[in-house]
Amino acid sequence: MTIGDPYSREAAVSGRSVALPLINAPVPYEAGDPALERFRRNWLVSGIGEAGQARLAASRVLVVGAGGLGSPVLLYLTAAGVGTIGICDSDVVDTSNLQRQLLHGEADVGIPKPDSAVRHLSGLNSMVHFERFGHVTREWLDEHGHEWDLIVECTDSFDAKYLVADYCADSGVPLVWGTVVRMAYQVSVFWSAAPAPVPALTLRSLHPVQPPPGATPASPEVGVLGPVVGQAGTTMATEAIKVLVGFGEPLIGRVLMVDAATQRTDVLTFAPWE
User: Which of 83, 101, 166, 184 could link 97 by a cystine bridge, Cβ 3.0 to 4.6 Å?
Assistant: First the structure.
């Protein structure tokens, strides 16, 4: 079962497992609830249980970006039974997206990505409540960011990544972060308000300074392989589920670095736990 009282909204830490505080209290499932059968293969996983599934159903997750990284994140969080998912993206679907953004199809070209995403995701799990938003600004986050248990940052620009990460650093809202280009990706988890012994970290703990324009390669110039984006996004979804439920060892204080060209994987510890 999950750590601490699984039906509590409070944060809990046990060993290297972390359960985030939730805005809404989890509600135990009643015997015979169809959701128990639907999500059976979730809660049979050691460390989740019915209580962990109830935590997912109570969770509110904001996904910023509904493109390459956002597609697998949104698909798997929806399939896993996260109760409320916010989708932020100001772009419309373009044919150049379809090589890697599997949440959208040819019929969605020209449609705002949040609208396309909700149309497809609602068919996957009608029990999830979706909220759609456009362009994310610091002002919007200051007003609405506290309404979410967790933010998953899935954009493809450093301006957006640091905007979201700096908000999370200042507000204490936990952040799942990832970046991908060519055949390589990185994933980590940051929580500036983490209770001891969990290290209180931000994106700037790992990457202190935002790279200037043109300093690092970008996928429009050097490309990115679709399956590699999918690998990164599914890893981000896994990290989100781990900290929402409170099991496993999240990538807090560590960054996963994968070179898919050679399938070499490294985990760098940049902030040890107390």
Answer: 101
